[in-house]
What does this fold into?
Amino acid sequence: MSRHSLNSLADIAHKMVVDGRGILAADESLGTIKKRFDSIGIESTEEHRRAYRDMLFTAGEAVSKYISGVILFDETIHQSTENGTPFPEQLTRQDCLPGIKVDRGAKPLALATTETITEGLDGLRDRLNGYYDKGARFAKWRAVIHIGHDGRSSIPTHQALRANMHALGRYAALCQEAGIVPIVEPEVLMDGDHDMARCFGVTARVLDLLYRELFEQRVALEGTILKPNMIVAGKGASEQPSTEMIAEATVKCFRQTVPAAVPGIVFLSGGQSELEATRNLNTMNRMYAGEMPWKLSFSYGRALQASALAAWGGKPENVPAAQKAFTHRARMNYLAARGEWDEAQEG
Ligand code: 13P
It folds into this structure.
């Protein structure tokens, strides 16, 4: 490794999942944040995006106590709070690590029908060095895996899995060279009517291929964080598993595929409601307390922000109510990552 030691990467990764703290994914791309703002009827201007993220990053205990790091979007890492503090500095002052989304989105995979390949490797070394200088200490890259049938064959295909896991490996190696901890995110989507067993099978294959790639590309697992989906049934499936079934299948899948050297696994919410995402995380940590080699925590986008976004509604006078809603969700997930959450605490 060049100028950065494995020790400092491992220290950062450890800090990202310490004692129940987790990650806020606030790295919505311009297209995604527009969808979120459309849902509350406000226009996605640069100032609205800044004001919204300002509300989140100045929410006191949410950021200083329950959240260990925030994933930013390129526009956001260059923005500042109302009183002029650059966002990365605002976070760092509260003992919260700034992170950065560096992929450039999922694009159609050549010669495939519906599957995608995540792009963004060209020029990534220079971009990572620039982000490091801006304060980023971890990064995120999301590969998207679809379950279903695309007219020719059942998906995911081996072609799509290999291409996406290879890209995740190259991204992770470049991050570590730049002193940045890579969050590796292979998201198996909840879209479809497949059952939980199918999600288990696909996720296990994905994780197996991912860790082979990371090994081949010399990535030090101690300085990485995994961001996966939970093992659930498709949204359209007629039978939905209980939280205990989800917890059991998810931990079993990881035990078979995720090396013990990985310090932490932080879930995406992927379309689960705020309550489901919290409950499932808590069930795992309660059922398997002391029996897992890695920490299980959260890196939610929608499941940390949905109530806060609705309470904010684009109005400055609603900032205190929105911050209260955000702090509540952050605290509930912090408790869930410690296996200490209880539905009664939801209030
Ligand atoms: P969700 O929790 O809304 O799925 O977002 C997390 C994320 O960062 C997906 O890349």
In short: DSSP finds 13 helices and twelve strands in the chain. The chain has a mean pLDDT of 97. The chain has one domain: 6-346.
